[in-house]
Specification:
304 residues, alpha/beta, FAD/NAD(P)-binding domain, 2 domains, 24% helix, 23% strand
Amino acid sequence: MTDSDTTWDVAVVGAGIAGLTAARTAAEHGLRVVAFDMLAPGGQLINLGEVTGYPGLPGKTGGPDLAGTLLEEAMAAGVEISYAEVTGLAAGPPVTVDSLDGPVTAGAVVVTTGLAPGRLGVPGEDDWAGRGLSECASCDGPLFAGQRVAVVGDDGWAAQEAAELAAVAGHVTVLAPGAPRWSARAADRLSGLGVEVREGAVVAGLGGDTALTGVLLADDGEVPATGVFAATGRAPRSAFLDGVVGRDPDGRVTGDPATGVPGVFAAGDVRAGSVDHLVAAAADGLRAGLAAVAHLHSPSSPSS
């Protein structure tokens, strides 16, 4: 690799909606920017069917469509995309980003790695993967056409998954461990689609022999289902930051957006205190991108 491949003004780790927004913002200010994502850029948008609650979009816009638009805008601004897996970070200046393709350095780094797929946290969970247990309604929903399915979770993502499944499944039950945290509009949508919502439903296990037959609850109840979609237990992807930046007990990066480590910022779902909404993720990415620009333009910055 040449120096231009390994030395950047800004490195963004994670290319979901927050990451692509941060990267584009920094590039539009004339900075050399690379965005890392070991999978397809777009984050959870890739697994989202119809986008709701995002202003300015045409009706029936799919998550992959929005992801594609954000990626095109970022690349048009000059952002380079790297598919290398990031394995660690070292404070600077400059900040070093370690990846499986080798280290790169940057004057500023924005961490936008989001959340891992949902987990139920029950015994034998991994054995049901691909045999009735899923974390993506738009991907696997059609496999359960006309059947009874359950979504486990109490946030807006769980409501979105349930709404998508209602279009194909015979019956959808949302098992909400706590009080639902989705909007009144989402609640009305679920009601109109005939989705059953059970509050305070704590999942204890999955039932069935060779095929999934239901969800076992902590109160000894059972909800019949041939498909279960985990929209809970989504841990932040922040293990690669061990010993570098502060994290809360849940593993989310502390900072709004500055982390306390010079030149390192955080945005989106991986950040403590972030709001579970696509518009909020975009706004978070914008703030982090501008913060990175301000850091590099500061008289005290080594790159100034």
